[in-house]
Protein 1
Amino acid sequence: MSLERLGESLDAALARARAEIPEAPDLDAINALERALMGKRSPSATAKESIKDLEPGDRPEAGRLLGAYSKAVAALLAGRRAELAAAESLGGPLLDLTLGGHGRRRGHLHLVTQVRRELEDIFVGLGYQVAEGPEVEDDWHNFEALNIPPAHPARSMQDTLYVRLGHEEQVMLRTHTSPVQIRTLEGQEPPIYVVAPGRTYRNETLDARHSPVFHQMEGFAVDRGLTMADLFGTIEAFAQRLFDDDSVRTRFRSDFFPYTEPSAELAVSCVFCHGDGCRVCSHTGWIELGGCGMVDPNVFQAVGVDPEEWQGFAFGFGLERIAMIRHGIDEIRTFFDNDVRFLGQF
Amino acid sequence: MRVPLSWIRDFTPADAPIDALVAALNQLGLEVEGVEDPGREVLGVRVARILEVLPHPDADRLRLADVEFGDGTTRVVCGAPNIEAGQLVPLAPSGATLPGGFVLERRTIRGQVSDGMLCSAKELGLGDDHGGILVLDPGAAPGDDVREVLGLDDVVFDLSITPNRPDAMCVMGVARELAAHLGQPLEIPIPEVPTTDHVVADATVVVEAPDRCPRYLARVARVTMGPSPVWMQQRLIKAGMRPISNVVDVTNYVLLERNQPLHAFDLGRLAGRGIVVRTAEVGERLRTLDDVERTLEPDDLLICDAERAPQAIAGIMGGATSEVGADTTEILLESAYFERMGIARSSKRLKLRSEASARFERGLDPEGVAVHADRALELLVEVAAAEVADGVVDVYDRPAERPTITVRTSKVNAVLGTALDDTRVAEALSPLGIDVSGSGDALQAVPPSFRPDLEREIDLVEEVARRVGFDAIGRTVPKPEHQVGALTTRQRARRTVADALVGAGASEAMTLPLVAPAVLARYGSGDAIELANPLRAEESVLRTALLPGLVAAAGFNTARGQGAVSLFEQGVVFRQPGDAASSDDAPLPDEREHLALVLTGTVDRRPVEDDRSVDGFDAVDLLSTVTVALGLGAVGAGTVALDAGTGSDRPGWHPRRAASVVLVVDGTTSVIGAVGELAPDLVGAAGLSGTVAACELELGAILAIAEARRDSGDDYVAPSPFPPSAIDLAFVLADEVPAGVVVTTIRDAAGSWTESVRAFDEFRSDDLGAGRRSLAFTLRLRAPDRTLTDAEVADVRGRVIAEVERVHDARLRG
């Protein structure tokens, strides 16, 4: 066989491959074509056999022709095989996605946790750190160091749950997060800027309006030259971020807390009605959010901080209250029922 | 505290719209909780004179009253027994409106036409006296609007007074604040008491406990008992008090007006016509006016008669013996100043609070004792025909001193962030009764004796703030310069834990940390800290574990028809205190941070896969999401592992379907909790059924490890680019050998090329024999620097087989 014949033979076989492989109906047909075009008695096998009979000068060219043929046919075969495989996988049973899936669900953070994180993040943004303290406190931290001496009338403002530790009425479930102020001041030199979220307790039975357990967040700053204007400005900045509305305004009214003086009740302008009057603000245009004030010098003296050098402010919010305002929840009990239909809404 | 505006106006014009008065009171810190307009619903009710009372022809209990109401007469049917001709009474003619929106119509009652009705006090919304028709003072004229006659055209402020302001717990105090705020005059008339010398002031007073009773003043008067006049009754009712008798009403009236609790003793019933003020003997008893027998202690202060028999608990409540009554002719009027803390202690211990004790314990005005008594006597002359003895017994050995307080304007401005000058500060304080003198940055302020709360400079700074108003204070935001706002690693890790669980389908619960001891006991969590004053037995101890509350929450959901519940809780539990650092410190509980998980019901995977019940593996998987999120690998991968141990170590858990959770650190193992399935009796007790998978552990211990690992600096493993080699092995083992322990053996034996070890099949058969099972494991090896050779893989395989067979008495299945 001459080089010329060899070339013609491969050309003819390649032409057949180009014609028939793309039309092969299934894998069996492809396999048959592969045997016919690349197998033992195929034109390529015959050509390969005949190379040794060629002029030595023609052999490299014959090898190149054979290689090109094999590559082209293999590509055609692979291409058609892929087409057939794809066609097959596109068949099969219909998957109706509207049936629903494997039931992999996401849970929900408790609403109080969500509010707590939000408040923490706002104050972290204002440069605060998050402080913690025990839920069971001693008289010193919960009352006495906070300028609430024994038999002080302010003690009767808070129905305290005492525990059987120490002597009578020495150890209690903290009635507010304010003892964290004392613990922070005992452990750290000013300046201090902290918030202290946490669980607090009162001697009340759980019902629609009362709960023996609720959550507060205390804020507390001690620095040189802090003023009541700093307190009010901080509260206003916080309220604007909480409601994501720079038009929110704050209102302060004289109030009494033993550990701050002057003390104020704080309210924010109603973000729901903007003063037009609605159910949330009881048609007053203002929503009461908590209490605040300038740290009483007696508190500083209790922990050995010089009230002439340092001034501070403190504020507190109820976390359930913020959640109730925001979502129109009317019973505090629902926070502790842990009904998944409650948890799942937030 | 309820304060009628008309009463305030006895002392100051309070000339401003109601809204403005409310705003002023609120700004002053006298929070307005409500504004009542008692006559708002009383429309068209007029004063009528009863001309004649006739029997009803067809009803024994009804009578007919012919009345004249200024510009006409009419007839009404009336069932009240107290009407008489000549009386002035309220007439609600047809068309009039009474409280509740009740509009009168002309009606026929038992055949007689009634053109409206005569009204009782209750029907006019004035207290609860429904005993008869309200008989009006003779001064009224028929036809007058009853609202004016009864002072119903009034406004009552319901104020919440903070405990630091005893001076504001009375009408005069509120008037003083309003006068200062509005810049209007305040006029407190000086009482005028005509005295007589034919009543002998022979009463004696001995104060044996002057520390507890710094001042005791007694006056003597003859009185004629009877009801107090309508105007006084109406003021008391509007202020929320019930009229009793003229003498008692006067003491209450002065209490409300001037904040001075007074007590009128029936002098005829005071043995020895005198008073001894002394502390109680142990176990001494006294029946108080509320008809309760009180047992006293030496810390209680008593007002006794001259023969030392107790007549009253000082400053708290009088006794029944010497109470004034209808037959009283002579009274001893007590006006005293008691030490506040003593009153507070007794009141609290006796659980007895009164209008008097609430005021005394906040601190009253020692200097007001005499003048307030005079006011009462002035009124007694008016309403009880009192003849007042001109003698006064006033035991007041050490008059109170008024402190002088230095007020620096610079400090005022430093605290408030204001720029007030000295004059403005002085102007703010003076109208409150504070004497201000001096100048410059050292004003000298002497607070009035009725302001015991003003002791320090900061107290006066607050007064300035109240007077200038918080609206005058600006808004600035301080920026901490010494620190960056951030959560700690621990705080972020806690969020990571919750987020991981939420991502894995669990919802966060918050259960009450107050639980029932019986419930804790079921979980073997004894020795809980008890509450000293629990309201309910169900909430009488502090939780030592989260699971009891969390399982109850799951039960609550099941009871409400929620099939599958997946809950977790992060929170503290309370153990008994460890060894106290020193006996001086209060023993505080050992608070531990825990995590608990509960899974109930079916894993709902329709329609693609079959539903199945939750089981212990689900709890382990959920726990793994936590440990993986914290960078500690899955449970069993090293740091956090399971130890089957013995079931009896875990009360509350299923004896054969739970395991202890252990922390493995530097080869040391410590148990930190348990995971698996709960014991069936607990499941039933919580109203649940089927399998309840759960976990509870000391999260704090895991967080501490995660925190320590976080910055170790060398825990990164570069991913190898070389292919892995897998070895599958099946062993026949005794049932008691936990798969997790075998995994550890395999991992250790395989050495540093180990990428993962996983159990993938469990198999039992008769051939294997009872108590034995086949466990299959896949071991993946990978070297960081090359492809492992067949020989190397075979070598590892041989080592692993030998070690498992040796350690666990196992046999390789062929």
Protein 2
Amino acid sequence: MGLGSIIGGAAGGGAGGTMATAAKFTGAAAVGRQIAGAGKNLSWILLVLGIFHYVFRIISGGNYGVAFVLSLGLFVFAGYALSQRMGQESDDRWAMLFPMLAFVVWYFWFNANYDPIFLSYYLGISFGTMVLIGAVTKGKAIKAELIGFLPVLFLFLDIGLVPFLVEKLHLQITPFVEGLVLYMPWWAFFGLLTLPSDATKNGSVNFLVNLTKILGILYLIFVIVSPTIPDVGHVQSSLPQAAEFEDAQARLREKIGDKENPAVSNWKCLFAGRFTDLQECIAERQLNSDLRAICLGEGFEEGTSSYKKCIEEQNKIREQGAPVTGINDPTITEPTTAKFVVGQYFPDEITHDTGRDIEYPVNLEITNPRKQNLSIEVSCNFTNKKNKKESFVGDIVSEQILEFSEEKPKTTVICRSPKDKALNGSYNLVYSAELRKLKSASKLQRAFIGDRDEKWKKEWVPKIMSAHFSSRSHLSQGAPDLARINFGYGNTVEDPIVEPKYGQTLSASIENIGNGKVKNIESINFDGLEGFGDLQGCVTSMIPKIPAASSSAIPLKTCFTKIMPSELANPPVYTLKEFEATITYDYLIERTVGVTLKLIE
Amino acid sequence: MKLLNTLGIVLVLILLIGCGSSGKGDAKTNFKVGSGELDISFFTNAPPSKLYPQSNFKIVLEIQNNAAYDLTAGEISIVGLEPKYFDVSPQQQYFQVLEGKNLLNPSGGREFIEFEGKTGQLFQNAQNYRGNYFLKTKYDSSLDFSDTICLSPRLYDIYDSGCTPKEKKGYSGQGAPLGVTNVELVSYPIGAGAKIEFRVRLRNLGRGLVDHIQLKDAKLGGKDFETCEFQGPVIDSHQALLSSDQQEVMLLCETTLGSGSSYETTLAFEFDYEYELREQHNLLLVNPNVQSYW
């Protein structure tokens, strides 16, 4: 059901509206007109209150608290106005309260938690309850439930959209979109939308009202859609193109791997009777299944001693603590990437007389914006879809070792089925490319303030935070390359204000960002850690073995020091310093393509 | 003869007009009003709005004293730039004295201060780097306050042919960022005379922060007060220390008046203070390979 029709259904009072029409059909036209009239008045009131709220927000400057309370008041009023519009003959209009309540609970009680697992539960329960209400009322309440989403949408636009995009999704929205959202009198617009088509007795005014409604709906759609459009809605293009969705899904599947579904863990813990420590039980099962998936992916057979050793090693890595997180540097729009692209001339289904020496070409597309000297080894492998044991290596007809230093090199990788194996049936053809000695760097800024009294800190720390560490920039930042090192440093690793008296910790992790696998970490280097004791040597003293089916981040050793250069321990005011960490690594990308070959009989 | 008379009258008129006109430097101009303070602006294209890697640049500041008092021991620092991207040298510059507005220099002292800088490389293939920094300016200055007030030692006398004392008087500033904003007069009888208390409120009227204030002199009718003390967070009775969120302080001065009729007299204070301005600015380093940046 489209927005317009919902609004039409809700707001269509008077001669042209649903309620009045319904009233005519039921023979209660007078009652319908009365209701529609009352609803019309409420829409006008909402329009006026919305304008008042908008003007108040503009002139009150930083007084967001009052504007926020007013928004909530208008949210409730909008719900009431809509319920009035639905008419008193509609016994099920109370049902529209449910989505409103569900949103308020999600947004305020659960702090707009958008964790997929949580959302699946929350939305599932909410949807289930709505279906139940619909079933109990024999479908009569469904319309009311859907209409209840309208005030929710407007409240979200009014108070929640910008912070949600910026703080939760970490999108750096453009000032343009920010302006579109913040400088729209949403509640006045809501009042306008809910006005009937014959809001006044003047035809020209009605025409203007209806035209504004149409423009308003277009505006609404644009505001909702634009944050997803790069260069319009947000500064950095982080959204995948259509073709990349597939890769993203594959990556997600790969990351989840054979990990136990959290819902299954939940049920198993409940059946095991672990009611008192349910969360611990779920976390335990999730961790165990994660480790199991990693070790199985490494090729160890379950139950063997090498498998147990693998589990122990992985446990040790986990015990080092949660991996440090980092963010994409918003000023780097071109990361280093590599992918196989299947062209439209790829012979995915062919008929052949022998089934031998069939050549399958795919494109290897690389983005190398920093012009690194890349060495890539490519290979291919066929696996029978029906009989997985039938797996054999194909021959690379094109160059097997490729070397590039250009920004956007392209090449075709041709895989030929072996002479001694006749293809017959459906196969998974896996192309692999191992990129060697790739380099990825991250940066981290910290403000060294020296030993200061509380008065100084009270005056300066908020200024330093606002000037240098707004919007998560206290975390390390790097290009979203195939892999990246994330690191944190400070009195606590996330605090960007460093004081010499407390001692400092350096913690780092390696994050697999691409769709493939980090095969090997060759080296880790820190720049800017001179004069900080042996922090660099300490962190790099234990480079973990990267499991084949790695989870997204592998923590490195966490180190501690009390030493810092004197110019940072005693700065004249404060000193901003940037550290840089670089990893050199090998990375494997794969692409599986289904091929079918029919032999001519 | 008639012509000579006319010429003589014209000459006398010219002389009178010439002597009477004084333009800006009018002896009646009072500079010690309002809340004028140090104004800092950047010289055009210094620094440029966009900087490219490995290039030299200059930050040239034009400082203009709009206060009615000299600014001394001036210190301007650039704080918070990461030298990897913007290496500015020196990071601190000084000015000894910047003259306040006066009859001989009605627009106040002006000076140019220059910082040399060199840009570094961008991080990897970043499109740009915006370096926020603070321009921290610190100086010492003074403040004079004087007004004519009415005092009445005989509080019980209803009829007094003299002046009428005012309990409270407000002021809009004395030509400096720190100003006396109001003076309250509280008096009570002691014997034949009266004890008088002045509650002088000093407030930061400028864009920066007052660090500490020192009372140099306080006089009523040319005589010292019996006591004069700052209230609240003080270093000593004559020195107040202000915090960033409390940029206001009260000075209490007391004296005893003998018997007599009401009269008008002068109330005068002199203060020294330390002032600090912190303004946030930024430098933008852009990647020359990025064709358009906005």
